[in-house]
Amino acid sequence: PDRYDAAAAQLRWQEYWETNGTFVPRDDDSSERAYVLDMFPYPSGDLHMGHAEAFVMGDIVSRYLRLKGLDVLHPIGWDSFGLPAENAAIQRGTHPAEWTYANIDTQATSFRRYGLSLDWSRRLHTSDPEYYRWTQWLFLRFRERGLAYRKASFVNWCPKDQTVLANEQVVQGTCERCGTTVTKRQLTQWYFRVTEYAQRLLDDMGELEGGWPDRVLAMQRNWIGRSEGAYVDFAVTLGDGSHRAEPVRVFTTRPDTLYGATFFVIAPEAPLAAELVTDKHRAAFEAYLEQTKRITEIERQATDRPKTGVFLGVHATNPVDGAQIPVYAADYVLAEYGTGAVMGVPAHDQRDLDFARAHGLRVQMVVDTGQPDPAETGVATSGDGAYVSSGPLDGLTDKTAGIARIVEQLQDDGVGETAVTFRLRDWLLSRQRYWGAPIPIIHCPGCGEVAVPDDQLPVELPHLSGAALAPKGTSPLASATDWVNVACPQCGEPAKRDTDTMDTFVDSSWYFFRYCSPGYEGGPFDPDDVRRWMPVAQYVGGVEHAILHLLYMRFFTKVLFDMGLVDFVEPMRRLLNQGQVINQGRAMSKSLGNGVDLGAQIDAFGVDAVRLTVVFAGPPEEDIDWADVSPAGSLKFLQRAYRFATDVTSAPGTDPATGDRALRRETHRLLADVTAALESQRFNVAVARVMEMVNAGRRAVDTGAGPADPAVREAAEVITVALSLVAPYVAEEMWERLGHAPSVAHAPWPQVDPSLLVAETVTCVFQVQGKVRGRIEVAPDVTEDELRAAALADEGVLRALAGREVAKVIVRAPKLVSIVPGK
Ligand code: ANZ
Ligand code: ZN
User: Fold this and answer.
1) Whose CA is nearest to atom 7 of ligand 1?
2) pLDDT tier at 253, thresholds 50, 70, 90
3) Radius of gyration of the chain (CA)
4) By the number of CB atoms within 10 A of the CB, which of 232, 324, 395, 478 ranks highest?
5) What is the CA(497)–ligand 2 centre distance, in A?
6) How many whole angstroms separate alpha carbon 568 and alpha carbon 790?
7) How far apart are CA 687 and CA 615, in angstroms?
């Protein structure tokens, strides 16, 4: 009769939690606070198995900290601007808000059902004007600090979505969202000056070590890509024999190979290339430039691609030996890295060597590493070695000394200096799409760029829907003429609004601050609220955000620190990257037909069983193959646990100390393991130990202490509290059946009694000729050999033997050793 009814329990406790504000933090200084945060969802349809996995991990952490007595903030909101909503609106002839908010409602219902311990009162949507008002406000503050600016450059362009993409949104040469091959376009766009924070983004990672997965830190370090080297200035002889007024600068990590520079290369799209090319070579150069625009940066950097390029008809002068070297434009040099120009040292750089061989250029070895001459082998050498044909460097034998020596000389001669370069680029934030936060700038013919005054924020989106949103290459906002045409806030003359919207990564770079101050009108957040709650104790989300989102939100936090609004530089102390749910060894996909529907799983087995299955499947970081797990088995276990709790017949509050000692020892041993597993986020191990507890409890009820024993109640309570992290509905039911007032979400985390962990001892007696001569305390499982050795070394025994030989030793472990002396 006593079966756990998942469907009924789900309805009942959802309602209870909601009406009682069970998961709303007290925020009253009565206890320490903890902020647990899940990366907020994008409203693309209903929740799926991936959400099930990600959100259960954050839920365990928040529930556990709450049980430990912390006041936990665990909020939820939606990252609700973005292209999919816009594309859906175009297809359906509707407004993006319709699709967006309908999906949010669906997801919100599913999140509630999924039993997440969320504070719904802080819910936010980045597409709400009261949210994007502050996104715009932040943009303006960044701009005042010189951190938001406009520049013309070649940008990644998705021909299908008809919008620019940040470098980070180009995946292997294709659009991250739609997979179309990305091309280049020259446009004037808004950027955030992230590069100004490159060094701090690197340095502050020290604070994250141990708290963030190593691989995420490595990916961030790589992305930032710090390179140490030098700038070297080359004079340029123009086509007519005259000299360019300004020398041309290269960035090199190997200034010590300067004597081996036999040519010079400029990125084709760098303005310098078009400036230098002579009339004779212009046609060929322009054709090459067009070709360059059609290939992606990734392809350009591929080592196995043929090294193409065109001669520009001019020469550069090597500053150390005056050698005249030809200047080329070649696509293996990127305009946006270093200075956009390089010195070609074919003997010691493989790309340069490939280029030199393709274009018949000289190869001059200047570091003798002992390996064969690159001019003959076609393999560049890069190790330490003896410098040759290198003027003052000859005689030196290591790179560090060589670099120091040449840089000193370059600096003395005023033709170079040490330099640090980063691979990181400024963040391109303009998007020519509708469904995003409008950039709060007005372009005035007289005043130029004018910020929309703070008291006129938000700049709300004009109402556009359906076909009006279709990609045209310009922002849809440009067609909303009533909206675009405004009076300049400075001079009152006719002016135009900026028609770009912000990259949605801007929205997600500060949402975690807003959760601390829902509804706050005085700014994006109240600094006092943030001081109380932040930094976030635990952030949970997918590793696909290892670079972009995590880098940008770190950048935002540092800027807010510099503005004096927050007093920390790293917003997330710990980061957990959950694995993915796959099926039959493959990622779930429509084409493979191996999708698993979360709603259907919940209908069949109940929320708790699905949550338990996800958690029990393995460590949180690892992928789960749904083909290998058994939600039916999970449900069976939950029924067993529930039955065990309902079997308890003692009254609540019974003193467990009077209960069965063996069961208590088992309970506390397992509890210690559960606690340790939770602290180290091995949630699957914690579940396994709870399962063992249920087995031990069951045995005690059926064949041991019986249902009225206080130790049985103790076990049932420990099981219930521990289970509440993973299976909150059944745990609430069990807690109630055990006679406690709800909710188990605020029960105290059970304390391990250390005295129950100590191995118990027994007294072993040593006899000589039947008389007791000594005794020791030993473990119950002591071996016969150990006892024999201890007895024969015992002082009392030795005295009784008085030098006689031992004829016989009889060991009855663990209680008796009897010694018979010889004659
Ligand atoms: C001469 C040289 C000699 C170089 C040598 C290397 C080895 P990382 O480590 O990635 O920073 N480089 C500089 N700017 C470039 C650009 N815009 N596009 C493509 N390549 C560029 O690489 C720095 C090295 O990459 C620089 O040092 C330069 O080649 C090249 F034996 O200069 B080196
Ligand atoms: Zn004006």
Assistant:
1) 349
2) very high
3) 36
4) 232
5) 12
6) 60
7) 8
Helix, strand, coil percentages (3-state) for the chain, rounded to 5, are 40, 20, 40
Rounded to 5°, angle at Cα 592 from 589 and 596:
55
Residues 6 or more apart whose CB falls under 8 angstroms from that of 412 comprise none
In 3D, which of 191, 267, 215, 266 has the Cα closest to residue 424? 191
Neighbours of ion ligand 2 (CB under 5 A): 444, 446-447, 488, 490-491
CB 125 within 8 A of CB 104: yes
Residue 556 amino acid letter:
F
What's this model's pTM, rounded to 2 decimal places? 0.88
DSSP element (H, E) containing 234 = strand 226-237
Distances (CA, A) of 246 to 232, 238, 272, 408, 705: 13, 12, 11, 22, 93
Task: Say if residues 555 and 509 touch (Cβ distance below 8 Å).
Answer: yes
- Cα separation of 529 and 73, whole Å? 12
* Per-residue confidence (pLDDT) for residue 823, from 0 to 100: 74
Q: What is the mean pLDDT of residues 105-131?
A: 97
Q: How many CB atoms lie within 10 A of CB 355?
A: 23
Tell how far the Cα of 779 is from the centroid of ligand 2, in angstroms.
89
Nearest to 391 by CA among 371, 409, 378: 409
For the chain, how far is it from start to end, CA to CA, in angstroms?
74
Of 733, 728, 734, nearest in space to 715 by CA: 734
What does the pLDDT look like over 403-431, one tens digit per residue?
A: 999 999 999 999 999 999 999 999 999 99
Phi-psi region of 338 (alpha: psi -120 to 50; beta: other; left: phi over 0): left
**Residue with tokens 């601050």, as numbered in its chain:** 513
Cα gap 308→378, rounded to integer Å: 17
Judge if the beta carbon of residue 340 lies within 6 A of ligand 1: yes
695-712 confidence digits (pLDDT tens): 999 999 999 999 999 999
* Helix 607-616 and helix 49-67, axial crossing angle in degrees, nearest 10: 90
What is the spatial distance between Cα 484 and Cα 71, in angstroms, rounded to a whole number? 47
Task: Note whether 297 and 337 are within 8 A (CB).
Answer: no
Give the separation between CA 134 and CA 142, rounded to whole angstroms: 12
Q: Report the alpha-carbon distance of residue 223 to residue 547 in Å, rounded.
A: 7
Distance CA 643, CA 465 (A): 56
DSSP H or E stretch at residue 494:
strand 494-497
Q: Residue 566: CA atoms inside 13 Å, Cβ hemisphere, count?
A: 27
User: Can you tell me the ipTM of this complex?
Assistant: 0.97
* C-alpha–C-alpha distance, residues 22 and 1, integer Å: 30
Which percentage of the chain shows pLDDT scores above 70? 100
Contact 433, 475 (CB under 8 A): yes
Q: 666 forms bridges with which residues in the sheet?
A: none
Distance 252 CA to ligand 1 centre (A): 5
Give the CA distances from residue 81 to residues 73, 127, 532, in Å, rounded to whole numbers and listed in that order. 24, 5, 29
Q: 1 pLDDT exceeds 50?
A: no
Query: For residue 568, what are the CA distances in angstroms to 527, 573, 823?
Result: 11, 11, 83
Residue stretches of the annotated binding site for ATP: 590
For every residue of 16-42, DSSP letters joined together read HHHHHTTTS---SSSS-EEEEEEPPPP
User: Six-digit token pair at 608?
Assistant: 């708790």
- Of the candidates 372, 407, 367, the residue with the CA atom closest to the CA atom of residue 389: 367
Residue pair 561/567 in contact (Cβ under 8 Å)? The answer is: yes
